[in-house]
Design a protein that fits this description.
Blueprint (H helix, E strand, L loop, with lengths): L1 H25 L5 H5 L5 H51 L3 H28 L6 H54 L12 H10 L1 H32 L3 H17 L1 H11 L2 H20 L5 H29 L5 H8 L1 H16 L5 H14 L1 H4 L7
């Protein structure tokens, strides 16, 4: 009981840190591409994102060695200081090379800091409560994402890009203080060290770990395509203006705030397998509706995209819960592989889409994505439930 009380206090601190951290990088997230396009052509913006993702993947491979050497507290503080430096570069940089370098550094440090926060949360969790803990953390993080577009529009309108990145930088300061004051001196586990190929072999020989990582990859692929191509489809093909799209997207994101905490508690009692399968089926259904829908009613489109995110929120919390029931905080090499899914998706996704565009239009893209979500059932139906 005393240990559980200590863990509960540490988790409360991490919930606060998680909210502020996600708010810090969510505020400029939807504006970054527009900011970069002021320095390079729109075609090069995609290349910058791809290069950032590749460097993030390389950094994830090295991250377990850094954790073994410095521990998670020092590593996280170091990453946040580098992120602060990158934001300073975005604020004060006055040439293209400085801006691109600062953006790439920001992208990589944000990805790695998310990873180290995952390790903290796992260190202060018990398997019996993994679902509710992960569900609560995701709900708090997604609340920050829900309110960030509105805050970004207000900050950008009043203070420009300088104010936007300045607010993002200021929000990092209380996080650094909280970690140094509240988490310093914690007993850190002995982080395992395993070479890349041995780590990959460990994943490949464990059916459940391999299955849940493929599920995480499919989910990130869904996010990458939907983030990149849904706004274009709604604006150019369906004909909505940007203010209307903004309202639609706000409605679309609500399931992440409403559902993930209760779904996490449900997973602790009932397991993850069934809900994962239902989530993939819902996402596939939503893709089919996008393809056949020609109505210009924004309420209809908000409903379809809301449905798609019911599925995504379900898969997200179930996949995270399952993975962290199978893996503890010492398995940094496996957590590192898991968190590579997002940057890999942002490298592979646009390449696959570009190839498909040679044969299909935008609707063909969503058809392919729907079948890809159905393919996720192959893995969700065979993993062994964790209760």
């Amino acid at each position: 009981m005393p240990q559980e009380k200590t863990f509960a206090r540490k988790r409360a601190i991490l919930y606060v840190i998680g909210f502020i951290f996600n708010l810090s990088y969510a505020i400029p997230a939807y504006i970054n591409s527009s900011f970069l396009s002021g320095f390079v052509s729109e075609k090069l913006v995609g290349i910058i994102y791809a290069a950032s993702s590749i460097l993030a993947i390389a950094a994830f491979m090295e991250a377990p060695n850094v954790l073994r050497k410095f521990g998670n507290v020092k590593t996280t503080v170091g990453l946040l200081l580098l992120e602060l430096l990158s934001l300073t570069g975005l604020i004060w940089g006055n040439d293209t090379l400085a801006i691109i370098s600062s953006f790439i550094l920001n992208f990589v440090t944000v990805a790695l800091a998310n990873y180290t926060l995952d390790i903290f949360l796992e260190d202060f969790s018990s398997d019996a409560k993994t679902g509710r803990i992960r569900g609560m953390f995701l709900t708090i993080a997604n609340t920050a994402w829900l309110i960030s577009p509105y805050l970004a529009s207000k900050i950008l309108g009043n203070f420009g890009f300088t104010g936007l990145y300045g607010i993002s930088a200021i929000l990092l300061l209380p996080i650094i203080i909280l970690i140094m004051v509240k988490l310093r001196g914690i007993a850190e586990p002995r982080y395992e060290k395993l070479p890349f190929w041995k780590s990959l072999g460990e994943i490949w020989t464990d059916r459940d770990i391999k299955g849940i990582m493929i599920i995480q990859m499919l989910l990130q692929f869904f996010y990458a395509w939907m983030v990149i191509y849904t706004p274009i489809y709604l604006h150019r093909t369906i004909g909505f203006d940007w203010p209307t799209i903004g309202v639609i997207f706000t409605v679309m994101l609500l399931p992440f705030v409403i559902l993930e905490a209760p779904l996490g508690r449900w997973a602790d009692k009932n397991g993850e397998k069934t809900a994962l399968s239902v989530g993939f089926a819902i996402m596939a259904t939503a893709m089919a509706l996008i393809v056949i829908m020609t109505d210009h009613n924004p309420f209809v489109w908000a409903g379809i995209l809301f449905l798609s995110r019911i599925g995504a929120a379900t898969v997200e919390v179930m996949a995270d819960t399952y993975f962290f029931k199978k893996v503890n905080a010492t398995k940094t090499h496996l957590i590192s592989f898991s968190r590579m899914a997002r940057p890999i998706a942002y490298v592979v996704g646009p390449i696959v889409a570009t190839i498909l565009f040679t044969v299909f239009d935008m609707r063909g893209l969503f058809i392919f994505l729907g079948f890809l979500m159905l393919y996720g059932l192959r893995y969700s139906l065979v993993i062994k439930d964790m209760k």
